[in-house]
Write a structure and sequence with these properties.
The chain is an alpha/beta fold. It is 35% helix and 15% strand. The chain is built from 15 helices and 14 strands. The radius of gyration is 24 Å and the shape is elongated.
Length: 375
């Protein structure tokens, strides 16, 4: 029996992914998951991240494999005449080009946006960069952790008594990839009206600053420098990891009703009427004594069992799981969030769920290809 793969929302869109490392490749994978025909152009030695490990399979890192499915790969040396000629032969069929070369590199090769947009006016060109092309930091290279440091993210991450801490995943790179994806989709939508492509730039620096909610909003309003609060939310409480008689749990109380239900579940019904804690503002201001009272009561509870009780009562709560447990959770399977393809590939599925044109998984990483697919 033959399984028919549904046409994705971006079926018919052809993408040249010239990018390396994370932000650009992540954008290309999102587009590919939703039906675009993505041809990834790599230098002869391959994307740098092929060597970012361990672990490795067949000499290629898991890091690379996690960002480059639903693409076919061709190797071209764009610094050579032959490589540039091969790229130019592909461009008449391309709708989107993604690249993250150091600013000025493609222009020096004679294949920059200003040049090629004259020949290919419908082309949507997306550049992922560290800091943009100009300004005090313009054209400088940028990596996720350095941008986390410079945009204030590290300053508000970590324990209150500890030092600045890098977020434990490349959040700036990944959000920049998502912003690049949004930009591509916006430009394609506008092209349907005007018939013209345009240049998009998604910069790590901009994306890092854009992640600062609510810390930036707080600073704009009161001028106080945001500080680290550990697991606790800076504006609301209890929104924190709390100790129990067994494992810690995370409780995310966002309103007075949830707080009253929480107190009822842990045997402190009168706490919700205490003037110190009866509204969100009071609970946030008086968070330290509130945490002490809550954890004293929680010491009598099994954390995992309490989570079930709280969730059933409408109080957002969760166990604090390691990565392997999260990936093997029954709800992860139910949501179809793990992809398996021939050849032993496993990865995180698209979190974007469309009813008629769902994501599909057609090409494992490292699938070869020299041209766009027919049809």
């Amino acid at each position: 029996m033959t399984t028919t793969i549904p046409r994705g929302a971006l079926a018919g869109i052809r993408v040249l992914d010239l990018s390396r490392v994370l932000g650009g490749p992540y954008c290309g994978q999102v587009l590919g998951d939703h039906g675009a025909d993505v041809l990834k152009i790599e230098p002869p030695q391959g994307d740098d991240t092929r060597g970012w490990g361990p672990p490795f399979r067949d000499g290629v890192s898991s890091y690379y494999r996690g960002l480059n499915r639903n693409k076919r790969v061709q190797h071209l040396d764009l610094g050579s005449d032959d490589g540039r000629a091969a790229l130019l032969a592909l461009l008449p069929e391309a709708d989107v080009l993604i690249e993250n070369f150091k600013t000025g590199t493609m222009e020096r090769w004679g294949i920059g946006y200003e040049t090629l947009s004259q020949r290919f006016p419908r082309l949507v060109w997306c550049r992922v960069s560290g800091f943009g092309a100009d300004g005090p930091l313009g054209a400088l290279p940028g990596y996720d952790a350095a941008v986390q440091a410079m945009t204030g993210i590290m300053s508000i991450n970590g324990e209150a008594e500890g030092g600045p801490l890098r977020v434990g995943l490349p959040v700036v790179d990944m959000v920049t990839g998502l912003n690049a994806t949004i930009g591509v989709l916006l430009a394609l939508q506008e092209r349907a009206r005007s018939g013209r492509g345009q240049f998009i730039e998604a910069a790590l620096y901009d994306s890092g600053l854009a992640l600062l909610h609510p810390h930036a909003a707080n600073w704009f309003l009161d001028g106080a420098t945001p500080r680290r609060t550990g697991n606790a939310h800076p504006n609301i409480y209890p929104y924190d990891a709390l100790a129990t008689g067994t494992d810690p749990i995370f409780v995310a109380v966002g309103n007075d009703r949830q707080f009253a239900s929480f107190c009822q579940c842990i045997g402190l019904p009168g706490l919700a009427d205490d003037p110190q804690y009866r509204d969100a503002r009071s609970r946030s201001v008086n968070r330290e004594p509130l945490k002490r009272q809550l954890e004293a009561a929680l010491a009598a509870f099994d954390g995992r069992a309490l989570v079930d009780t709280l969730m059933a009562a409408g109080v957002p709560a969760a166990p604090v799981l390691p990565v392997d447990a999260a990936l093997q959770h029954p709800h992860t399977a139910h949501r179809g969030m793990v992809v398996e393809l021939e050849g032993g590939y496993r990865g995180i599925a698209s979190p974007i769920k469309l009813s008629r044109t769902p994501a599909s998984y057609r090409h494992a990483p490292l699938t070869p290809g020299e041209r766009f697919l027919e049809g």
